Model the fold of this input.
Amino acid sequence: MEVTPFLEIREFQPSCERGDRTRYFLKVQDGCDYFCTYCTIPFARGRSRSGNIDSLTDTARRVAEEGGKEIVITGVNIGDFGRDTGETFFNLIKSLDSVEGIERYRISSIEPNLLTPEIIDWIATEARAFTPHFHIPLQAGSDEVLRLMNRRYDTALFESRIRKVREAIPDAFIGIDIIAGARGETPEEWEKSYNFVKNLPVDKLHVFPYSERPGTKALNIGYVVSQEEKHRRVAQLTALSDKKLHDFMTDRIGREYEVLWEQPAPGNDRMHGFTPNYLRVVAPLDEALINRISRVRLAGIDEMENDSFIAEML
Ligand code: SF4
Done:
């Protein structure tokens, strides 16, 4: 049997999975050519390769015909879409946006260097269905650690993209990924990183403790953070995230939004849905509203699920 080495995999396998009646996951790209020093994905998933705009747009049309309302655009390095085919991510999202019946698109995660000011401006002003909800990996708020990680940006670029989003779409929800305790994150670099993140106008941190991956170049970096210190940094970042999220949510109480309601689990007498900027909202079950959009006022934070708002129907 002949086995293709992962780095030689060039073929794109399309997929569009249905999460529930409302949401679908459309894979537009696979693999990655970035070779961040801590990451094994380029070895496990192969080189960056993309679908094509026409067939992905057709898939979105079929989703709309099935009654799907929301598509999450997925991939390993989504913004890199089309580098192998001559198409562009910007043209892909413009084409998807034209599909009638799809009310919402979310970009699952995008590298900061690939979330261009042009894309941000388009989402802010022209996009019909692309939501103001961003998930952007930072990984470290120290230029030295970013360099050791072989990331493709520095803190100045990252900050400029975040501020651009905030300025163009003040109500956007911005989540970022950050790794705590990577190799090379000395106490000085950690302090820089923490202060950088603290001052960034973002709303949630997805915090991951650094974990050693066999075969990665990061293992050659000399400075190792102890497990105990890594956990302390995770706890500190998690507390910072809780504060940022709480501030964002508190500030939204009383505002009005369009909510796309989702099918609850069987037997549940409450339904939930999301605002365009991905705030979770709950209300008593009304079957007629499932998989539809209705306007609500956020009456307050729910006591049972404190990551959610109680809806006042309008
Ligand atoms: S961390 Fe992301 S961008 Fe970097 S190599 Fe892994 S998949 Fe690619």
DSSP finds eight helices and 14 strands in the chain. The pocket of iron/sulfur cluster is lined by residues 32, 34-36, 39, 41-42, 76-77, 111 (CB under 6 Å). The mean pLDDT is 95. Residues 1-131 form a domain with the Transcription Regulator spoIIAA fold (CATH 3.30.750.210).
